[in-house]
Amino acid sequence: MIGVLISLGYVVITALVGVITAAVVYARWHYGTLEKVKGLPAIIEPAIVGGSDVFVYKKIVHDQDIENVKKYGKIYGSYEGRFPHIYVADPELVRLICIKDFDHFHNKRIMDFGHKYINEMMDILPYDKWKIVRNFLSPTLTTGKIRHMSIQMTEAIQDWMETVKGNLQNDGTFQPKLLYTALSSDIIARCGFGTKLNSLHDPNNIFVKNIRSFSSEDEKINFMLTVTHVFPFLIKLAPLFPPGTLEFFADVLKNVMKSRRENNIKIPDFIEALNEMLGKIPTEEYKKHGITETTVMCQALFFFLAGFETTSFTLTFLSYNLAKNPDIQDKLLDEVDAYLARNNGKIEHETIGEMTYLAACVQETLRMFAPLIRLERVCNKDWHHEPSGLVIPKGVVVQIPVHSIHYNEEYFPHPHDFKPERFLAENKDKMNAYAFLGFGIGPHNCIGMRFAKESVTLAMANVLKDFKFRPNASTKIKFDPGRTFLLKSESFTLDAVKRIK
């Protein structure tokens, strides 16, 4: 009996050793790729499965990126999980990779998330399919089409402002993250789902509850994405979103789209574009590339997920910048007041372009607090850069650390100072055109850029019409560690002071 147990023990131990060995070999399969790239500084971690401290949530990722560029230069490599990454923080190389030589880098990483509503989102699609979807939807978000959506934005902002004014009568404490998340949700619900929403006034609305449910899982999403850098297949074993959340939003959208079709309602907005796209599903081109009703639905979900947090984040830190820089805030208030006087107190799509200083404040906020931490491209065929001798092998992930460029003195002198003047027309020639990456760059840039600018500008102009910001004892920024995709911070408060005119 003892002999049997000993034999069984040996079998178990041997099996465990085999599994561990296989896991390590799998996790380190691509190791050696970066070491073969001539002249490339490479960060080689001693950990069994590689990766840097960001993968155990010890460091602020964008700060680490800045430090790495200072230490290793504008081009360096590292392994994140099992994948070799090359970091490029040189605007000229960014131009080549993202624009001129786009044919070498036309994909981002394609992963199977095990969920039909995630796998079909635009940024996850393979190039040929992505190109069809992007080309169809791009005209929907041009300046002309934004005009109608601007009316919907304004209605949402005005409803939101009424609730905010009532709340601020108590003590004037302004919670940017909470309030702007509600606003951006309301705007995208109207423009992307045809659903009128007032999240602050009706927090128990089922739409609002599902938004909260999605947001509450954010930590889990970040952890799972980190794990899949080592073992990609694990992404299927745990859902990134609470069960039923994406299905809820998809059902809302299906019902709105169906109602529009059955009642022959034609409104020049995002939903109308999706209905038109739905009508193209029977075509040979769509069949060839596997574009289905699910693909169409997913673009509205992508529009929502990509938009509501980035918009609220930008508004949050624009408010922060104004509170911390009262002279700049006063200059902006003068511009807003002059604009309102010229336009009979109305803030409208046709005229908001007159507020050039507000636009510059938005751009400078995106420079200092870019929501996207890194831009990603995958090399699909070996790329050679003769001037530097750099060779990026096929299959390597190229990461563009946005903050490393935005905080480089060479491109933005005194980068820690809030200086909107950098983005005024008279200073345009002084800036490297490829150093600002607030909305990405090249064919993969943010498809909703005009929508985002419009919503942020309308929202801030309406807020500054009645209030100005001041910092208080809790106005301190603390970023979440371990984030590799979207920049996140803990909540803080500002004082919103009623303006006396």
The number of domains is 1
Based on CA inertia axes, which overall geometry fits?
Answer: globular
Question: Which CATH architecture is right?
Answer: Orthogonal Bundle
Q: What profile does the largest beta sheet have? A: 5 strands, mixed
Structural class assignment: alpha+beta
CATH homologous superfamily - what is it? Cytochrome P450
| Number of extended strands | 10
Rounded to the nearest angstrom, the distance between the terminal CA atoms is 93 Å
Instruction: Fill in the CATH topology.
Output: Cytochrome p450
Strand order of the largest sheet: 1-2-3-8-5
Query: What's the helical proportion of residues?
Result: 40-55%
Unreliably modeled segments: none
Overall average pLDDT:
86
List the helices and strands in order.
HEHEEHHHHEHHHHHHHHHEEEEHHEE
Q: How many helical elements?
A: 17
Protein name: Cytochrome P450 3A21
Subcellular location: Endoplasmic reticulum membrane; Microsome membrane
Main location: endoplasmic reticulum
Transmembrane segments: 6-27
Describe the structure.
By secondary structure, the protein is of the alpha+beta class. The chain has a single domain (31-498), classed as Cytochrome p450 (Orthogonal Bundle). The chain is built from 17 helices and 10 strands. It has helices spanning 2-27, 61-72, 91-100, 116-119, 127-137, 143-168, 176-193, 206-216, 218-228, 245-262, 270-278, 284-288, 293-324, 326-342, 356-368, 402-406, 449-466; strands spanning 42-43, 75-80, 83-88, 173-174, 374-378, 383-385, 390-392, 397-401, 467-470, 494-498. Strand 2 (75-80) and strand 3 (83-88) form a beta hairpin. Helix 6 packs parallel to helix 17 (449-466) and helix 10 (245-262) packs across helix 11 (270-278). The chain is globular. The mean pLDDT is 86. The chain crosses the membrane at residues 6-27. Cytochromes P450 are a group of heme-thiolate monooxygenases. They oxidize a variety of structurally unrelated compounds, including steroids, fatty acids, and xenobiotics. This is Cytochrome P450 3A21.
